[in-house]
Amino acid sequence: MANATFGIVGIEYLSETTGGFLTGSGDKVDAGGYAIIENVEHVGKDEVKCIPVDVYSATVDHTSRNITAKLIKSYTLLDAMTPALPIYFGTEINMYAEEISGLIIKGDSTSTFYLDVRPEAERITAPASGDLKPLFQIIQSSEIEDDDAEEMKSKIVTNQNYLTYWTNFDVPTDYLAPLLLIGALLFMMLGLNARSSTKSYEMNPEEG
């Protein structure tokens, strides 16, 4: 399409967008094929089903995203002619990524399609927000299932706790931890008993 429109419609690479993970640096998001968002921002921290997450936001300004080429796809100069089909696209996306792995476990988006209602001769320039009339809106949301959340909490979240990492018993070595703990307590008790016996002997040197 870029060649057919002599570069007026640029090339966008979907291969550079996130595949379900966020790193917090240089992330790109595919907005349903209508835009590739590069301004992914970290906006805070939260929890999703007791799993700590980083919260990210991504937006597309509806006044700057004409999707004529996406809709017509004639692979001619017509794709670059805004008056042919003056439709604009805007979206707001929120993503919640598990803070250690970066896996997105919850997300929601609100996408709106707009019609440029200006006279055809004025559509050569970018519209103002008041020039665009909403046509329809798509609201989507998704969240990790309860079973998957429990498994992730066990394998990722619990395993990061140095004192209780073994309590999920997800690997064979987890069974050694309580045995070592019990052994250490027994040795401690034996040591205390031996120390107590020594003190008793020192206080009564005539005995024995």
Word description of this protein:
This protein is of the alpha+beta class. The chain folds into 2 domains: 14-160, no CATH class; 171-203. The chain is built from 3 helices and 7 strands. The protein has helices at residues 68-72, 146-157, 176-203, and strands at residues 29-30, 36-37, 41-48, 51-60, 87-98, 104-116, 132-143. It has a 5-stranded antiparallel beta sheet with strand order 3-4-5-6-7. Strand 5 and strand 6 (104-116) form a beta hairpin. It starts with 28 loop residues before the first strand and ends in a 5-residue tail after the last helix.
Would you summarize the structure shown here?
The chain has 208 residues and is of the alpha+beta class.
Calculate the terminal CA-CA distance, rounded to whole Å: 101 Å
Residue runs with pLDDT of under 50 for 5 or more positions = 162-169
Overall SS class: alpha+beta
Strand content is 25-35%
How big is the Rg?
31 Å
Which sequence of strands runs across the widest sheet? Answer: 3-4-5-6-7
Query: Which of globular, elongated, flat, extended, rod-shaped describes the shape?
Result: elongated
